[in-house]
Amino acid sequence: MPSPNCFTHRNLPLLLLQAREAVMQHRRPSLREHGLSDQQWRVLRVLAEHTAEGGLDTGRVAQQAFILGPSLTGMLARMERDGLITRQRSDEDARRSVVSATAAGLALTDALSQAIEADYLDLEAHLGKAKLAQLYRLLDELIALQEETCAEESLEASA
Question: Are residues 84 and 57 part of one domain?
Fold first, then answer.
């Protein structure tokens, strides 16, 4: 009979989810106060970070905000109705839509950024600058490792 605890490593996906919830627990009150869900905030933040580009196609928004396409479609419709984003057909490919934050969406992002930056400063005060920087580096390395694995698998599949 196998041992009930045959794992030698801690449950990293679960720990990452718990860490996400610990961070978001401080953010959600500000988001809800402005009528935003976690996912809507991720979309606005992605769009605000790419304002200079004149918007992003929906596929890139989905990828960068980690939202599945079908969920994103309905969410963008609601955000457009609420005046936070605009959608228009791509000049290069009429099958694609380009999404941009409106002035109201950018103003909301700016207003929320102050509270969110305060949360980051609080986190930095508790962990220390060095540990927070180390956490960012480790997460970046973990993400890069996954991207390398996906790229290798893609190359193998096309060979």
Answer: yes
